[in-house]
Amino acid sequence: MAFQSNKSPVEYQALAELVDVYPFDVVSVYNDLLFQPALGPLILMAQRLHRAQVGFAALNPYTLHPLEIAGQAAVLDMVSGGRSYMGLVRGSWLDRLGIEGKKSYQTLREATMLVKHLLARDPAPFEGQIFQLAANSTLNYQPLRADVPIMIGTWGKLTARMAGEIANEIKIGGSSNPAMVGVLQPEIAAGEAKAGREAGMVGVCLGAVTVVDEDREAARALVRREAALYIPVVAELDPTLQDPEWLQRVQEAAGRGDYDYVSRQISDEMLDKFAFAGNPQDIIRQVEKLIEAGASRVEFGTPHGLNPEVGINLLGEKVLPCFKS
Questions:
Q1: Are 145 and 77 in contact (CB under 8 A)?
Q2: Please, which residues have CB within 8 angstroms of residue 95's CB and are 6 or more apart in sequence?
Q3: Which of 85, 88, 86, 96 is nearest to 33 (CA)?
């Protein structure tokens, strides 16, 4: 489960208590630009979740230094009793802040390594191209764990290969397309082999907007409107899509703010590549295809339903039971 960080403390607590009724494995909170920082919501939710892992989806090393990222990871891990993960990503919409996001591969790689270095309280200096840390600059507190799992968000082959070397999981955010697993898994495997890691130890998560309701058509209509906002951005990241004319049309429409047009251009087939939408049976079929393709985790994103509570209940009562380990 993944939640947007735009709620009140009481709402986060209530959602966590509802999610805790069901055996969801992971609860994530987005850290999108101009929304609330994810740490506060995650602390509130972690205190009311008794099984699920909790984590950031995700922090970026351009607006937050790896020292601060490591600190947030350590705090959440302590609050959750060792049930946290840290998500790292290049970040989107950085241009709104005048940040160019240069050398994104090297920045993300060094940030990941420096977070690990700090959590391990390694006294050695860290001497990267982007980030440096003087010798004996260790955290002045003891993290609960030195090896908090790290997820790296990416659609790219090079970063997926890097994640195979140094991360625990990659997440393809905004995708529900099984074909994307096949695109990135060979790159992850190459990274694992390069680092001498066991094959298959780095998981693949796909996460996207989710709306589930017994009223199938209403659910898909809402998702179409929601997906129209991000499909023009993420569709060009998916190399399995072979319709440049369609992509140009929707990007031009998005550029002029005509999202009604964009939503009308999203076919049922296209919608299923970028969102989880429909009745419980639809969601089950989508998840089955992802698991068959090799996904290790599926993340159901906000808003979850026409009514969020109803959507969470349907996921917990009608979808999860079909995927018991």
A1: yes
A2: 101
A3: 96
**Angstrom distance (rounded) from CA 85 to CA 76:** 9
CA-to-CA distance for 302 and 43, rounded, in angstroms? 19
Specify which residues 151 forms β-bridges with.
87, 169
Q: Do strands 26-30 and 297-304 pair parallel, antiparallel, or not at all (unpaired)?
A: unpaired
| Residue entry with tokens 């892992």 | 53
CA dist., res. 154 & res. 104, Å (int): 11
Distance from C-alpha of 174 to C-alpha of 306, rounded to nearest angstrom: 19
- CB count within 10 Å of CB 32 equals 16
pLDDT class of 174 with cuts at 50, 70, 90: very high
Q: Model pTM?
A: 0.95
Q: Prior bond to 199 cis, omega within 30?
A: no
- Size of the chain, expressed as the number of residues it contains: 325
Which of 192, 187, 225, 232 is CA-nearest to residue 209? 225
Q: Is the dihedral of CA 176, 177, 182, 188 positive or negative?
A: negative
- Tell me the C-alpha distance between 47 and 54, whole Å: 10
DSSP symbols for 192-261: HHHTTPPTT-SEEEEEEEEEE-SSHHHHHHHHHHHHTTTHHHHGGG-TT---HHHHHHHHHHHHTT-HHH
Domains with residue ranges and CATH for the chain: 2-217+272-323 (3.20.20.30)
Q: Among candidates 11, 4, 7, which has minimal Cα distance to 27?
A: 4
User: Would you say residue 92 has pLDDT above 90?
Assistant: no
Structure tokens at 199: 């094959």
pLDDT, one tens digit per residue, over 242-271 is 899 999 999 999 999 999 999 999 999 999
**For the chain, how are helix, strand and coil distributed in percent, rounded to 5?**
45, 15, 35
SS3 state of residue 78 = helix
Helix (H, G, I), strand (E, B) or coil at 134: coil
